[in-house]
Amino acid sequence: MYSGSRASILIGAALILTVGACDREERHSRAKPLAENVPAGQSPDTVYPGGAPMPPLDPRATAYERNANALSQGQQLYMQMNCVGCHFHGGGGMGPALMDDEWRYGGRIDQIAASIAEGRPNGMPAWRDKLTSDQIWQIAAYVRSMSGQAPKDAVSSRADEVSNTEPMTQTKRETVRSADAAQR
Amino acid sequence: MITIRRACAALALATLLAGCNRYQNVFGSDGSGSTNFTWLFTIFMAVTTFAYVLVLLFLGAALARRRGTHAVESGTHHQSTPALRTALIGWTAFVVVGLTVLGVASFVTDRLDAQPPREQQVSIKVTGKQWWWDVEYQGPTPDMNIRSPNELHLPVGVPVRIRLESQDVIHSFWVPNLAGKQDLIPGRVNDIMFVPHRTGLFRGQCAEFCGTQHANMALTVQVESKDDFRRWWARQLQPAQAPRTPEALAGYQFVTSRQCSSCHAISGTDAGGRVGPDLTHLASRRTIAAGTLPMSEGNLYGWVADPQSQKPGTKMPTIPMNSQQLRSVVAYLKGLQ
Amino acid sequence: MRLKHAWVHCCVAVAALAALGACEKKADQSSQQAAPTSSAPTRAASAAMPNDDGNWVMPGKDYASSRFSGLTEITPANVKGLGLAFTFSTGTTKGFEAPPLVVDGTMYVITPFPNYLYALDLTKDGAPAKWVFKPKPAAAAQGVACCDVVNRGAVYSDGKIFFNTLDGNTIAVDAKSGKQVWRTTLANIQKGETITMAPLVADGKVLVGNSGGEMGVRGWIAALDAGSGKLAWKAYNTGPDKDVLIGPDFKPYYAGEKGKDLGVKTWPADGWKIGGATVWGWISYDPELKLIYYGTSNPGPWNPEQRPGDNKWATGVFARDVSSGKARWFYQSTQHDLYDHDDINESILVDYPVGNQRIPALLRPGRNGFFYVMDRRNGRVIAATPYGFINAAKGVDLKSGRLIPVPEKEPKSGRVVRNICPAAPGMKDWNPAAFSPATGLVYIPHLNLCMDEGVMEANYIAGTPYVGAEVKMYAGPGGNRGVFTAWDPVQRKPRWEIKEDLPLFGPALATAGGLVFYGTMDGWFKAVDARDGKLLWRFKAGSGIIGQPISYRGPDGRQYVAVVAGVGGWAGAIVSANLDPRDPTAALGFVNAVKDLPDKTTAGGMLYVFRLPR
Which of C298, C368, C431, C480 is catalytic? Predict the structure, then answer.
């Protein structure tokens, strides 16, 4: 009797522990309210006449970078929407390299999302009407992860491309410390 | 009187009957693969049922004898031994023969299924993608190839050879009425060959867990006469029907210039995306989204407006559009016969 | 009296014999210089024009594309004294592939994007610029140019300079004043088309082809009237016969090219509409046969599983009638291309010895690794010999004309095929070889690269890449990434070879003085002896050289050699576009092959002109 109740206590504790694993992250199959708007105009590291600082980053935007599903979807979209055809796996080609710390039009996630949505003068196509905002945020989050900005437990451990490059969990990338204080 | 025991028995019986619809039936012998399987199943059932009955008989006899021997003492031992020995020899022989029969039957069935058809065959390539079937028919010249997502049409009596590939994770091709299961494994080319024997409409399904919408990855298979099949192929070769009304024209413009064309292809237009199913003959198919919804105008509305509510987690995003755009898109799509 | 006559006769005879002896001696001397025997090819007599060694009016020097200068002042004996005459900074830092043009005392330099055209006055000290023409091409074109924003050259004809801009315009500029005469838009960057090739002016028509085989475009070649810029004819390279201008005059040699609408039948439905087969390379012209010869690019996408069939008329050579554009013959050197082996390389027109005859032929150092000798009247392949290491093909079947592939090296989706040689840029990419009629050799600057290739499904979205493949390149057997080969087209083997560490991505120049000039990607401009390849002179330029060297006679009557140094192109994009070497697949795999290039050179765009000291 005594050992029976101890056993059932242990089983109960184990069950509670297993249930605790069931909340790693939320997955939203439909766009959150923020995703309806990819901000326009805050694109390059701009001078704001009058001395006003750059608007702070909405915390919901950075949530994309920490969400494994968003990074994984972004990785898939990056291949499917032919981003890989110009930027390859971060090294660049027709387009500039995305895995280094040089950003022509800004490296904050909302700046990257704006670049994707609006296009840029030297050849970056405008995807605003060709992708949903949610998808654009996912791709922007993935682009950030290529330069080592995303946490290691969120990046995809499976490289969808052929085994010519290491998956992101294995790569050592220098994290970017931007000179722009607003980006930290 | 409805007792718990009776209810349980009825429930058990009901579950047995669950596999007995006509169009997705493990015992439907409508194709060579499933016919072979049904024969094998019958042989197994026969041998094992016979053995089962024998065992029950022996058990019954043993129980009955047991009661009787209370009266008789050990003097009758000698009289029962020859009978027992014969029975034992007979039983061993039966087991050996029975197992051999099962083994041979299994081997023969497997070899029959693996034999490539010798004569003219329909050659199909199916690529499994999360969560739909990218079906491509190979014609005699490459310009006769057609794509028919989520729907197979097969001519009756003609051997068909399906090459199975996967683009992402392991899926499994399973049309129980026609053939057994065969996996679609990324990085590998498998194939499955069978001959459909009977015309009719059948349902297939992905049989290997492949992600959140694995349950909604069904395949419609229409087996038809050779003439019907040729007519269907010829129709699939046609480019998409041009929009006929102003509303459909607006829909065409939306589809070919906005998010739709990033992933979908419509032959004869500028849309050439290959991420999602080819939409050229969307309205001629029986289901939407690999069996998630039956094809109808209302379901098209529901799907295009918000695919995530119909098939949560699917790769098609919910595309923001106002009601006018939605109406025009559906007007165009339902014209893609 | 009779004795006197006899003496005279005797003297005359002796003099004649002596003269003959002198002739023979001269012949001996020239054979020491490896003069061609009667069994060496010669420049096609009909196409070796314009025959003006003082000028350089088209990138190929003449219609035969010989890139051979008849000037003899600079020789192996004196080249070590070659020094700078003047320099000119173009202000661009992208890959510089074009040769300068020289026309009667003016030098014309066409730059990569933004495609400025400079005119330098060679009669004045220091060659100052007379004018610059700025076409102002759309900046967005830079986003749809696969392999650096290069321009392969301008051409001079009839008082005008003709060139193409990256955003798809062909422009005629008055050679004296620098004012635009006409501008015609031919390509649409929204569909991913650009124009990078150097046009050719033949029969009063400006011949232009598009680029974009990696962008899912449909390839074409067009002829514009040189005076007005109006379209004379346009021939596509895929699709139904009426678009490809294939009619009753079309008489290909091999059975595989015969049939109706092969440009549709050898593709899956609608595949030909986005099938590539562009014309971004070189055109040669035979004024006697009135045929132009050009090659077509790879079929699109790179992933071969998406386009079953032979994929006509990609990766092959067309011969078309120059006035109507109608196709005369076609030869597909690579059926159902698996490795991006575009066939746009130069066709050098020669008269080739076969037995006792000389037949009108063309020589092509092919991208797929075979050196083709073809009869240019009908497209028959006389010989196809590997000029480097190939393991992706077993050979060319001369009966059917088909390339014999190696099945184990065929890329399949879901797996990577490794060690494919030659790599995607081929045994030789765009950079043309030079032919010297003095030695009878073809001087080929080329590559020694192998690759790993993996394919996946390509998604077509107009204006974005349509490739479906990932590549990683590296040095081939031997470890050297470049080779300079002096190829004997009759013996069908190399006479000599120079192994280079870096890939050779620039063209060659051959001179009658007995020298061959070429540049390397780390900036060395070299002169080697045409007979044996001995390095005789070199100069370190400020940037790697992928541009074509030329030689001309200056206003002072001296011989000059000019080249523009500006590394880039597909091979040098790691420097010109500042790419990241940590990603081996970048720049379609080339970054992995030249990871060390940024340590060896930097971007630039400087013209260097050399001459001997007084």
Answer: C298
Residue of B134, B213, B254, B262 to mutate when probing chain A, most A C-beta within 10 A: B262
Residue A31 within any structural domain of the chain: no
Say yes or no: A165 contacts chain C, CB-CB below 8 A. yes
Of residues C337, C340, C500, C529, which has the active-site annotation?
Answer: C340
Percent of residues, chain C, with pLDDT higher than 70: 94
Residue C285 sits at the vertex; the CA angle it makes with C282 and C287, to the nearest 5 degrees, is 170
* Whether pLDDT at C544 is above 50: yes
pLDDT for C145: 95
Q: How distant is the alpha carbon of residue B286 from its chain centre? A: 15
Range of the domain at C63: 12-611
Measured between beta carbons, the chain B residues lying within 8 angstroms of A30 are: 306, 308-309, 318
Q: Which of C266, C412, C457 sits opposite B274 (nearest CB)?
A: C457
Backbone angles phi, psi at B50, to 5 degrees: -60, -45
Classified as helix, coil or strand, C120 is: strand
The one-letter code for the residue type at C452 is D
Residue A47 included in any domain: no
Enumerate residues 6+ apart whose C-beta is below 8 A from C318: C221, C237, C293, C294, C295, C296, C327, C329, C330
- Is C127 within the bounds of a domain? yes
Classify residue A49: in a domain, yes or no. no
Q: Are C286 and C44 in contact (CB under 8 A)?
A: yes
User: Splitting chain B (337 residues) into consecutive groups of 10 residues, what average pLDDT does each group show?
Assistant: 72 65 80 85 92 90 73 52 85 91 92 76 94 96 95 94 94 93 92 92 95 95 96 96 96 96 95 95 95 95 94 92 95 95
Rounded to a whole number of angstroms, the CA Rg of chain B reads 28
Check which CATH number belongs to the domain holding A95 and give it: 1.10.760.10
Give the CA angle between residues B210, B214, B220 to the nearest 5°: 120
Find the CB nearest A30 among B261, B262, B318. Answer: B318
Alpha-carbon distance of C200 to C220, in angstroms, equals: 15
**Total domains, chain C:** 1
Residues of chain A neighbouring C146 (CB-CB closer than 8 A): 93-94
Identify the helix (H) or strand (E) that includes residue A87.
helix A83-87
Range(s) of the domain holding residue A12:
2-24+58-183
Helices A68-80, A133-146: inter-axial angle, 10-degree rounding? 100
Rg of chain C (C-alpha set): 24
Residue with tokens 């105009």: A41
- Nearest residue to C468 via CA among A165, B137, B275: B275
**Contact list, A27 vs chain B (CB under 8 Å):** 313
Q: What is the pLDDT of residue B116?
A: 72
Number of domains in chain A: 1
Instruction: Name chain A contacts of B275, Cβ cutoff 8 Å.
Output: 80
User: Please, which pLDDT band fits residue A19 given cuts at 50, 70 and 90?
Assistant: confident
Between A97, A99, A122, which is nearest C142 by CB?
A122
Global pTM?
0.88
Closest by Cα among C166, C182, C309 to C238: C309
Average pLDDT taken over every residue of chain C: 92
Asked if C342 contacts C295 with a C-beta cutoff of 8 angstroms, the reply is yes
Interface chains of chain A (3 or more CB pairs under 8 Å): B, C
- Closest-CA residue of chain A to C595: A91
Partnered with residue C318 across adjacent β-strands are C294, C330
Q: What is the pLDDT of residue C35?
A: 40
Q: Is residue A45 part of a domain?
A: no
Q: Cβ B317–A81 below 8 Å, yes or no?
A: no
- What is the reported pLDDT for A162? 61
Q: Which CATH number is C39's domain given?
A: 2.140.10.10
In a domain, C1, yes or no: no
Residue C430 maps to a domain: yes
Task: Assess whether pLDDT exceeds 50 at residue A179.
Answer: no
Tokens of A159: 């490289």
Q: Is residue C257 part of a domain?
A: yes
Annotation says C298 is catalytic: yes
